[in-house]
Design brief:
single chain, 318 residues, alpha/beta, Metallo-beta-lactamase, Chain A, five-stranded mixed beta sheet, 9 helices, globular, binds zinc ion
């Protein structure tokens, strides 16, 4: 099932299917992280095993306006978003290291200027969403806002709880401002509200905003993630409190009913199907307030299943 594939690369890596990355003839060039953030002589690029497992993550996509002042600037398989305002723009997520330059090209293609990006945000500290942030910060010069729970992983460039697994490292990126649950970020008349929805990562951050389309307001949710994916839940958790965190997230999100549900893995929200309807002339193709409740219920059921499975594998139900 596609829904549980987020970060599943790590599962495969943990299972040992990935040999140390070998250069591939078709591999995009390695991305140079900013000198201040980079250990001497180190370049960052996505290991071949991940590229091969998720080819859409680096497949370019045509950028487009989603609804209101929200634009899609990601690849076919990784969602990155630009929120434009008269006072500058907000960029959410960095994808893999290689996605950064793709996103910058998409911004230009839409007729915007990367120099107008005034704030950088992130949904969570996993290499497939934070890997491009250091490069995006270097080019735009924008300050980076993120949660306290994810700060150590973002600044350390590691996958929390799997620090020895260097295949899933990301270029370290300094957090300039720590975002708290419920805190708002405002620019040029647009306000985003951060909600910490922990579990998938310790500081997983979902973003709400209201946009206007054809004279009407629509509530938009860019949801962090609630998949179990590669996370260890029991008996040796990825981080202390992870099970309680997932349950907290399912509790606070059970009544969420955004008009528009967006995700950092576009297939979670059916983005490409909606895009096809939009291209066919449906201006409100992304409006569907049944999409998020259905998604989060499926995530909760999957979480309980995975937890039981991991506990059973450990030989107990501690
Ligand atoms: Zn993730």
């Amino acid at each position: 099932m596609k829904k549980v594939l987020a970060c599943a690369a790590l599962v495969a890596l943990v299972a040992g299917c990935a040999a140390p990355a070998k250069p591939s003839p078709n591999a995009p060039p390695a991305v140079q992280a900013p000198a201040e953030a980079q250990p001497e002589g180190r370049t960052w690029s996505t290991p071949d095993a991940i590229r091969e497992m998720f080819p859409t993550w680096l497949e370019p996509a045509e950028p487009f306006r989603v609804i209101g002042n929200i634009y899609y600037i990601g690849s076919k398989g990784l969602g990155l978003y630009l929120v434009t305002t008269p006072d500058g723009d907000i960029l959410i997520d960095g994808g893999l290291p290689e996605n950064a330059d793709m996103a910058l090209a998409s911004i230009r293609k839409l007729g915007f200027d990367p120099a107008d990006v005034k704030i950088l945000l992130n949904t969570h500290a996993h290499f497939d969403h934070s890997g491009g942030l250091a490069r995006l910060k270097q080019v735009t010069g924008a300050p980076f806002y993120a949660s306290e729970g994810d700060r150590s992983a973002l600044e350390g460039g590691f996958y929390l709880g799997s620090e020895d697994l260097h295949e899933v490292d990301a270029p370290p990126v300094k957090v300039d401002h720590v975002i708290a649950d419920g805190e708002t970020v405002s620019l040029g008349g647009t306000t985003l509200t951060a909600r910490i929805t922990p579990g998938h990562t310790r500081g997983c951050t979902s973003w709400w905003l209201t946009v206007e389309e054809a004279g009407k307001p629509y509530d938009v949710l860019l949801f962090c993630s609630a998949t179990v994916a590669a996370n260890r839940l029991a008996p040796d958790p990825q981080y202390d409190g992870i099970v309680d965190d997932y349950r907290h997230t399912f509790e606070i999100t059970k009544d969420w009913k955004p008009d528009v549900f967006l995700a950092n893995h576009p297939e979670f929200s059916g983005l490409w199907k909606a895009r096809a309807r939009q291209e066919a002339g449906d201006l409100l193709a992304f409006v569907d307030d049944t999409a998020f409740p259905a998604y989060i219920q499926a995530m909760q059921a999957d979480f309980e299943k995975q937890l039981a499975k991991q506990q059973a594998a450990a030989g107990g139900t501690d």
